[in-house]
Design brief:
The chain is mainly α. It is built from 23 helices and eight strands. The strands form four sheets. The protein has a two-stranded antiparallel ribbon. It has a two-stranded antiparallel sheet with strand order 3-4. The chain starts with a helix and ends with a helix.
Length: 464
């Protein structure tokens, strides 16, 4: 094998001068022009963007500081940068805005540990092995990978897609704002579509396991991200940039990633449960492998929680039993475990989902609406008060607000898996049809039935 310098010298020596009368201006216009425009758009989006489906406001620069504060740090001088950046955004001073974007992200990167923060009083689970030692997994249930499994998996995928389409229209708002505008949201607000970034990452995991089977590691899943995903946001954006620079998991989720306890891993846990139905430990391990690409600590536990519930839904029909069992499989000395237990306690003392949500909303108000915690609480509440009913569960998710599409997608996968496709009302199914549109390279259109068949094939290959 040649050395790098030998290959480069070979290319240099093979080159022949190419005379063109005047090409410099064209080359630079073709190369630098689109790059400049793309970078300007991205810088502006970091300061102010609107969620594609709901037009809710986001400011990633501000949220990065908030996220670090949530993780037990202080960022001296950060809010002065934020205030200046927001003013500069309004003035459309792009050179200055680029400077301030770097300063905002550097303020998050250079955050100082706040020893007095309650964040540091919890136990951190840094590896799957540490987590697995802290809980008692139930014995695996042998779920046959057969026609019934395929039907449940199809219902799970379809329900996830329905949930995402339903929630996309209302994500990023409080429950109060949603109720004021729409009342009880028990329908699609507008004609639904199936584009959703949540499913993007689940498809990458599925493709990795399809190729590598039982040998799949975080690295193989991460390489599918690099190959298939053209863009991402918050934790996944930072992780994808790390990956493309050669920084592999778990460092891709740790390095300069203020958002690694946000919802991004939690929103993609269902596929791990689908691939390991009935085996909660293996589902949790699969979720862990995926989560560390972009997340850490409590962010990872979010994906594990949803993977556990979907895995259990293949053999247990009582959603409240699923909920309690899986809450018990999240360590109580983690912040994530404390959040979902607090939400569960509210379910025991309130008559309706919204009354249970309000104390959770107050307790978690210092977290961004895209953080894992408020949305985990909503999942618990929706599953408890939904009482196994498709419509009631979906309405409870939407009625609480926050990151409604991520929450609905994961929660409804559980409900769909329990009951199968016949339990999904026709007015939810019909507008979706059988075609899933994505922005995954080489998988931009796929039949939902074909997706269930592919999942079946991969799950079968993973059976002992």
């Amino acid at each position: 094998m040649k050395k790098a310098w030998e290959k480069e010298l070979e290319i240099l020596q093979a080159g022949e001068p190419c005379y063109q009368e005047d090409d410099n201006e064209t080359i630079w216009e073709e190369g630098a022009g689109p790059q400049e425009e793309a970078q300007d758009i991205l810088a502006k989006m970091y300061w102010h963007s609107q969620v594609p489906g709901s037009r809710a406001h986001e400011s990633i620069c501000l949220a990065g500081i908030q996220a670090m504060e949530n993780r037990g740090y202080v960022c001296p001088g950060a809010m002065e940068i934020i205030e200046e950046g927001m003013k500069t955004y309004e003035e459309n001073d792009l050179p200055k805005l680029h400077k301030l974007t770097e300063r905002a992200f550097r303020a998050a990167y250079e955050a100082e540990k706040d020893e007095s923060s309650p964040y540091w009083q919890q136990t951190f689970y840094e590896t799957f092995e540490d987590y697995a030692k802290a809980v008692d997994f139930p014995a695996a249930v042998d779920v046959k990978i057969d026609e019934e499994y395929t039907g449940k998996t199809y219902a799970g995928w379809l329900s996830q897609i329905i949930g995402g389409a339903y929630g996309t229209c209302i994500e990023g708002y409080t429950g109060d704002a949603i109720k004021k505008r729409y009342g009880e949201v028990d329908r699609y607000i507008r004609k639904p579509n199936t584009y959703n970034d949540d499913i993007t990452f689940e498809l990458c995991l599925l493709l990795a396991y399809e190729e590598y089977g039982k040998k799949t590691t975080s690295k193989e899943i991460a390489e599918e991200w690099i190959a298939r995903i053209p863009m991402a946001w918050s934790a996944e954006d930072f992780a994808l940039r790390n990956l493309k620079a050669g920084i592999m998991p778990p460092q891709s989720g740790l390095f300069h990633n203020p958002f690694n306890e946000w919802i991004g891993a939690q929103m993609r846990g269902a596929i791990a449960g689908q691939l390991f139905p009935g085996d909660l430990k293996k589902a949790a391990e699969c979720a862990w492998k995926d989560a560390v690409i972009s997340h850490a600590r409590n962010g990872i536990l979010g994906e594990v929680f949803n993977a556990l519930m979907v895995s259990m839904a293949y053999y247990e029909k009582d959603v409240r039993k699923i909920l309690k069992t899986c809450i018990d499989l999240i360590p109580a000395d983690s912040e994530y475990g404390q959040v979902i237990r607090y939400a569960y306690e509210q379910c025991q003392t309130h008559d309706d989902y919204y009354s249970a949500w309000k104390p959770c909303e107050k307790k978690l108000e210092h977290y961004n609406w895209i953080h894992a915690y408020p949305n985990a609480a909503i999942e618990v509440i929706a599953l408890w008060y939904g009482e196994n009913d498709f419509n009631r569960t979906l309405a409870a998710v939407g009625g609480c607000g926050q990151d409604a599409d991520c929450n609905a997608a994961q929660v409804m996968t559980i409900i769909g898996t329990i009951h199968g496709p016949d339990a999904i009302p026709e007015y939810w199914k019909k507008p979706i049809g059988d075609e899933l549109d994505t922005y995954v390279r080489d998988l931009k259109k796929i039949s939902i039935h074909e997706l269930a068949e592919k999942t079946t094939k991969v799950a079968a290959s993973l059976k002992d």
